[in-house]
Amino acid sequence: MTRALAIQAGLGIASGIAGATLLRRRPATREATYALRIAGMMLLALGLFLTGFAAVFNHFNR
Question: Do 47 and 12 touch, CB atoms closer than 8 A?
Fold first, then answer.
């Protein structure tokens, strides 16, 4: 795995953890519920895409 793919996978894991953390938080108001869901899902999706692409590129570039 090259350094760029390792950084990409690391950022993906970090954003996935941040997204999962936001999704598990209990919001104080109804408006905060939507904001936490949107931000959490965006970070989780970013994490899935980054780690997924890093894994595929690592697999095909051996």
Answer: yes
Instruction: Provide Rg for the chain, Cα atoms.
Output: 14
Residue 62 lies in a domain: no
Residue 49 has pLDDT above 80, yes or no: yes
**Cβ atoms within 10 A of the Cβ of 43, count?**
20
What domain count does the chain have? 1
**What pLDDT, on a 0 to 100 scale, did the predictor assign at position 59?**
87
Query: Closest Cα to residue 12, out of 57, 49, 37?
Result: 49
Q: What per-residue confidence (pLDDT) applies to 20?
A: 96
Q: Token pair for residue 2?
A: 């090259």
Q: In this predicted structure, what is the pLDDT of residue 2?
A: 84
Domain range for residue 22?
1-57
Query: What sections of 1-62 are H helices per DSSP?
Result: 3-24, 30-60
